[in-house]
Amino acid sequence: MSVTAVEASRALAGALEQACEAMPPGSRAQAQRALRRLQDVVLPRLEDADAPLLVVVGGSTGSGKSTLVNSLLDRNVSRAGAVRPTTRRPVLVCAPRARSWFLSDRVLPRLAKHEGGEGTSLDAVTVAVDDVMWPSVGILDAPDIDSVEEGNRRLASELLDGADLWVFVTSAARYADAVAWTHLEEAAGRGLRVAIVLNRVPVGAQDEVRADLAALARRRGLGDVPIITIAEQELTDGRLPITAISPLGSFLESIGHDASERAAIVRRSLTGAISSSLAEATRALDGARESYRRLEAAREGIESLVATGAREVASASSNDVLRGEVSARIAEVLGSWDMTRTFARVVGGLRERIWGAVRGTAAPEVQVRRDLTGGLAQRLADTYHRAWDQSLRLAQSVGEAHDLEAMIDADQALERARLTAQEWTAEITEIVRGQAESSRVTGRLLAGGINIVTVSLMVSAFAMTGGVTGVEVGVAGASAALSQTILESYFGERTVRSLTKQARQALERLAASSLTEVVAPISGRLERLDERSRLEALEAALGQAREVLA
Q: What is the mean pLDDT of each run of 10 residues along the chain (550 residues)?
């Protein structure tokens, strides 16, 4: 089912509004500008091409905009004076018949409308009704485009975006200002109709100044833009004499009475607003997608760090685990283990454990198991610190590391590592028990050997590809060889390979889970699933709008 231009514009406006929150600041500003043009120009004109024109009177500080508007109406509706900035609240003047249109949400929808009176808030437009106005035109006195107040400058730009025609007011002393010409060039680029009022020109210099301004306008892409000059002169009750502003009055009156001219202005304004809003939306989407790609790359980088860290924990040998004094104790304990113990010797060994418990000392195999668990915990804790540091750098590269600590708490990291190591040790014991039941060697294990076999499987898991296989000599290699011998005596060579693989996989899984929890505060900053869906919706709406509107 085909959609209308209005439907496509509304869909694009809605998608832009939703996607703004998913964009970085630069892209967000472009999206908001595209949204303003859609709401202020495109939709109102598509819905009602014959609606009154919005003529924005804008320009530099002190150029006399408010004085000009007051003079056109022959009464003071907009505050003028020497204190800058003077125009704090925009003032819109319209005929009684146009009142309902300019007070509606279809005109400058983000701003509230206030009829009559005078205010200083930037969140509303003061609407003044005057019988001298033409029903087909509304004149809006805007804040200074170069105001010292950022809010005034922002609002002036927004009002110009919503204009059908811009009457640019400047002075003989300010007409070459860079800020003004930035706005004028942008207006020319999107086809907005512009007329220039050159105000406060010294007597006798009108022709020279006007010619220079006209040449500047042509060089800047405005072409032969209408230029109305007003000489420097005394004001009466703060207003210019009728003879001074009559050329501007005649220019606006001709537009007010000429339907075909107004239609041409609307076509130019609408075409330019459509083109610029599509271009701005496209640039905003491209920028947001690039930002999202960087976030995704950083998030994937953290996932890769977690996976790599887990593999290293599960595969790399460590001085704290299989070398040095710990490995020597492992070799001693495993080397003294007799798989053919008689019941009496088992009972004797049990008696020794009981006395060891009374004396506060653990059985040798229990102590070795604790040593292995502690060594693994230390390795995990070190990996946590490295993962946090590297993940933080990735987050910093995309500007998502604010309020994050440079280092994790060492005590908390070690405690987490201990719990993870203990969880793995317990899981190894369950793997051994399960295999014993399957292989029908439960009785032999329960006869005092469960800890020895658990230690053996832990050692085999560490030594599997950790650089301490049979190729390596010394106590670490001896520990690995002894653990292999003990395991094979219980389960056989093929089963031992499977058990060792299970143990390694369990360690890698638990290490990955704990690492994921450690870096979660960082990776959570990079999770943008909702933003992705919003950008996809904007891309679809933009594609549809191009087909219908372009």
A: 87 95 89 93 92 94 91 85 55 94 90 73 83 94 89 88 93 90 89 93 92 93 93 92 94 94 93 94 95 91 95 70 67 66 41 43 74 88 95 90 86 95 93 83 64 85 57 56 82 88 93 96 84 92 93
Q: What is the 3-state secondary structure (H, E, C) of 351-396?
A: HHHHHHHHHCCCCHHHHHHHHHHHHHHHHHHHHHHHHHHHHHHHHH
Spatial CA neighbour of 79 closest among 118, 114, 112, 106? 118
Q: Is 386 exposed, middle or buried (0-12, 13-18, 19+ CB in 10 A)?
A: middle
Q: Which residue has the tokens 């088992």?
A: 346
| Chain position carrying tokens 């009142």 | 99
Bridge partners for 94 per DSSP: 129
Nearest to 391 by CA among 403, 402, 381, 401: 401
User: Residue 245 gets which letter from DSSP?
Assistant: H
Contacting residues for 391 by C-beta, under 8 A, at least 6 apart = 301, 302, 305, 519, 522, 523
Long-range contacts (CB closer than 8 Å, 24 or more residues apart) made by 294-301: 294/397, 294/398, 295/398, 295/400, 295/526, 295/528, 296/526, 296/528, 298/394, 298/395, 298/397, 298/398, 298/400, 298/526, 299/523, 299/526, 299/527, 301/391, 301/394
For residue 229, the cross-strand partners are: 198
For the stretch 308-320, what's the b/e string if a residue is b when 16 or more beta carbons lie within 10 angstroms of its beta carbon? bbbbbbbbebbeb
Residue 109 DSSP symbol: T
Contact 398, 531 (CB under 8 A): no
Instruction: List 55's β-bridge partners, or say none.
Output: 139, 165
Q: What is the DSSP letter of 40?
A: I
CA 301/CA 295 separation, integer angstroms? 10
Neighbours of 482 (CB within 10 A): 21
